[in-house]
Amino acid sequence: MVTTDRPITPLALINDTTGAITLAIDPALRDLEQVNFHPMVHEESIGLTPAQFSAFIALHQPGTRHRRTRLSPALPNQPNHQKDIGHVRILVVGAGATGGYFGARLAQAGRDVTFLVRDGRADTLRRRGLRITGMGQSDIIRPSLVTAADPAGPYDLVLFTVKASGITGALADLEPAVGEETIVVPFLNGMAHMDALDAAFGSDRVLGGIVRCVTTITDDGDILQMNPLATLTIGERKGPPTDRVQHALETLTVPGYDASATADALASMWHKWVFIVTAGVVTCLLRGPVGAIVSVPGGVDFVHQVLAEAEAVSAAAGYPVPDSETQTSLAMLTETGSTFTSSLYRDVLANLPNEAEHLLGDFTRRARILNVSTPLIELALMQLRVHATIN
Which of 74, 78, 95, 313 could form a disulfide with 115 if both were Cys (CB 3.0 to 4.6 A apart)? Predict the structure, then answer.
C-alpha cells in the first residue's frame, strides 16, 4: 500500500492500468457547474463539468459502473426518486438554430449532452466549435457529437429539433439511440411530426414541447441570436404535468433561457402554430420585416386579418387561443420599427429548403377538414409553391 501526504489529481487514474486505485467522490461535486483539476502538472489546471469527469472515470477506472437516471414513459405518474440530473443522458437531434442554441446552453451548465448530427455538420462543429453570437455574446462550446453510424445510445431524454424536411432521415438515425425508457420531446413547429414520432416510438414516449427563440445559422455555421426571447416549455400532451415532466424540467432548467412545464401541451403547440403561420404569411406575402409592413397603409389590418384566420382554425380544432396570447402575438407582429421576420421568410430569401408545406400546407389541409375558410393563408401557400418551382 502506498500512502502520500501530497494531493494527487484524480486524472492520474489514466495510469492505473490494473485497477489498484479506488476512487471516492464527494457527491456534492455533482452539483457544481465545473470542477478544476491538475492535469498531472501542478502548475496548470483543467476545468471539467461533472458529466465530463464521470465520462473520464468510466473510461479509465476498471470495473467502474455508473447508474443512469431513467425517465419512465410507460408509467408517467410513477414517482421518480432519482434526481441526479447530472447523469441524465440527453441527445439533441440536430444542431441547427434551435437545437444548437438550447443544447449549447445545457452543455454550458454541465448537463450530459450529445448532439446527433449529419457528417457535414459534424465537420463544421469539430473545426469551429458550436458558437453562439449576437446580443453581445460570443460563446464557443466544444460539443460531444455522434452521427448515424454510431449514435451511442440509449439516451434518457431526446430533444428532437430538426427541420421538417429532415424528419424522415432523422427518425431513421435516431432509432438505435432510443431505449425502452427513453422520452422524446419534439421542438418542431406544426403538428405533422407528432404523427411520425408516434408511429416510430409510440405515443407514450412522446411529450409535447414548445420553444421560442429568434436564432438563425450564419454562413459560417454559427448560431446568431437576434432577440433576447428564449423559452422552453414541456408537458404531457393532455392533462397536467406529471412526475416525469417535472423531472425532465429539472434537467432542462439551466441559465440562458426560461424553462417551464404546462398542462395540455397540445393546446400550447397549436397556439404557437397559429403565431408561426401568421408570421410566415405576413412576412412572405408582403416581403419584408414587421416594421416595414406596419408602416404602410393597411399593414396593421392585414396582420389582424391573417391572425383571425389562423385562430379560427385552432378554435375549430378544439384549441381556442386565449385573448392574452392574441394580444402578445399582435404586439410582436405590429411593433413599429421592428426588424422581426419569420424563419420561413428568411429561408425563402436565402433560397434554402423551407417548411411551407409542413407549416402552411398541413394547416390549410386541416382547415378544409374543419370547414374553416383561410383565403389569405392559402394565397401565401400558393406563392411559396410557385417560388419552389422556379428555385
Answer: 95
